[in-house]
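agent> call fold_tool(seq_1)
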Amino acid sequence: MSELNAHADLPARVVVGAAIVHRGRLLAQQRAYPLHLAGRWELPGGQVEPGESDVEAVVRECHEELGASVTVGAQVGPDVPLQGGRTLLRVYEATLASEDAVPTPHEHQAVAWVSPVELTDLDWLDADRVLLPDLRALLDSAPA
């Protein structure tokens, strides 16, 4: 059996992202590494660990990457295949658990609160770029 077929029955790994909306803006973070991705923008998030739910992973990743607690809502947009479909990006809407929380970049160069009209101005990672129409719809329906 070829290596490709050996992995055919394995479930796809899931990477979660958090579409954190606050006062009508979306939180984006700017990559610091690896070098070929440095300077590009993405949503907070990361890989779902074994035994962890998607929601638990979103909460953990936001705490690790931003030092912020979040409340997780519904999925935003479809799953986005990564790495030839062996990994899926799944994004969830989220809000800051505390109104006066200040997310701080622990693993990234910067964070920014982005308005709906600024969404397309950023150099997003390709997987996040796929979800821009869904993120725009989320922002358009959010209270300002």
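agent> call fold_tool(seq_2)
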Amino acid sequence: MKRPLKVLLAVLPAVVGAGVLFLCSRPETMREIPAGTEDERLAFLRSCGIAGELLSEQHVTVPGEDGAFADYAALQHVQRLPLASHTGEAAAVYTYGIAGSSLRAELLCAGDRLIGAQLYLPEEARVMPLGSALTN
């Protein structure tokens, strides 16, 4: 094996390892996803591979991160959605029926930004992250 190739193969794992450590040590940044209009919300759903139709809109106040709400808040944190910074604020919950499925998509919006999202089956209490578009 030629010397430059040997050096490259010897150094490459260290460089890759350092890059992974750097990326993993970065502070988490919350996503800024526009959701102030129906077109923006539908575009977000499409970016997750979801075709949906608005079923309902409800105005709520975002509760604190305690009790039963803690699991929902933890899910939003994993998806890098800024729910925690909006407790006590007015928000709107948009529920969408998913084409060809009994699943529902729920988008929680404060102002013109998405602050929470989930998929669920109405007949079950199981909640899931909305999609890979949020967890990447």
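agent> summarizing second result for user.
The chain has one domain: 31-135. The longest strand covers residues 52-61.
agent> awaiting next instruction.
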